[in-house]
Amino acid sequence: KEGARGGVGGGNDFQWCFSQVKGAIDEDVAEADIISTVEFNYSGELLATGDKGGRVVIFQREQESKNRPHSRGEYNVYSTFQSHEPEFDYLKSLEIEEKINKIRWLPQQNAAHFLLSTNDKTIKLWKISERDKRAEGYNLKDEDGRLRDPFRITSLRVPVLMPMDLMVEASPRRIFANAHTYHINSISVNSDHETYLSADDLRINLWHLEITDRSFNIVDIKPANMEELTEVITAAECHPHQCNVFVYSSSKGTIRLCDMRAAALCDRHTKFFEEPEDPSSRSFFSEIISSISDVKFSHSGRYMMTRDYLSVKVWDLNMENRPVETYQVHEYLRSKLCSLYENDCIFDKFECCWNGSDGAIMTGSYNNFFRMFDRNSRRDITLEASRESSKPRAMLKPRKVCTGGKRKKDEISVDSLDFNKKILHTAWHPKENVIAVAATNNLYIFQDKIN
Predict the structure, then answer these.
(1) 151/266 Cα distance (integer angstroms)
(2) What is the pLDDT of residues 162-178, one digit of tens each?
(3) Is 235 helix (H, G, I), strand (E, B) or coil?
(4) Which Gene3D superfamilies match (predicted)?
(5) pLDDT per residue over 285-340, tens digit each?
(6) Which residues pair with 55 in a beta bridge?
(7) SS3 state at 315
(8) Contact residues for 260 (Cβ-Cβ < 8 A; gap 6+)
């Protein structure tokens, strides 16, 4: 692991500087080390990543010290544990990958932290707790743990707690299994903090955090005849304030908002969000690129954001017929869709995230580029996560992609973009301008200027 401090900039003007990078420098990346999800907890003090090897790594923000006033709290490894192992479904002759698809934190209620992690089939609730004391002076066993002869015990000792080196323990408290026939793509903790939903390609289930042996099926779009299947569920999320409301997106580019008060099975949506397609821009790839890969409610609960292959759209929950804002992420790839289809990149699932005040949004692109959009000024910027710019206090330089004609000095040609380097997973600190960007097996942390 290696890290460095940030430099000068200003968050409102999209001036970001390098803070830290976590990961190996090796060119040959092991498949198991590729980061598959990134998530800050509610306070932003902890940052969790999951990888394709089934591991969860939690980083904790160091407290600012008087000796290093400009450090602004770097993130260092707090706990690492194996969340999921590879399994085999003997009934279906199917391998179940250990890859972590999603991590979601629960609000902190006591000294311990809790998070949900899921692979394709099984969701687990993990407790992460600290221990800095141990009991000594047992009556029935020696200090090395061996049992004592009961006949030699002549006096009663009162065990005492002695200080020890800090130990962070991760223990699985609940395992929610056997509820999904298809691959789980989303989990979302409800605002009542007692229930959560999990979504696969065709169904959404509602769970209680204390009950592992049953869940309620609240959406089922599986047709009686699978040959009639026209769309699948791609993402789902609970409303941040109304525990009865949730949304789910589909591969057809539509979003359905459902109210659990209306019916036990929410097959009938309450609201249906869809933007009419422009007939002039229709092509062979229209259906593929309109598929929504991520949906996120704003912190206020008034808006939601969706990401399709080429754009990010912001929807007002009170207006269903079209988005209120549309941001082009990499429109220059529209002419490259044929080659992106051949190398399967067109099926990449990019995520998106809001900043703490809902005033800016971020999403990833190719060539280790990621995009930021300011909703108020309508300004946008392209930045790059790379070790070349990862010098202490180094400002991130805006990048530009040249689509044709004469290329300027600082521009990069669309033909020289590396489609193997992609940023699918990003996270924004809930209260500060600190962002985490996963680039293959490296986790980059950037921040705005130091005041």
Answers:
(1) 66
(2) 888 888 899 999 999 98
(3) strand
(4) YVTN repeat-like/Quinoprotein amine dehydrogenase (2.130.10.10)
(5) 999 999 999 999 999 999 999 999 999 999 999 999 999 999 999 999 999 999 99
(6) 82
(7) strand
(8) 206, 218, 244, 245, 246, 266
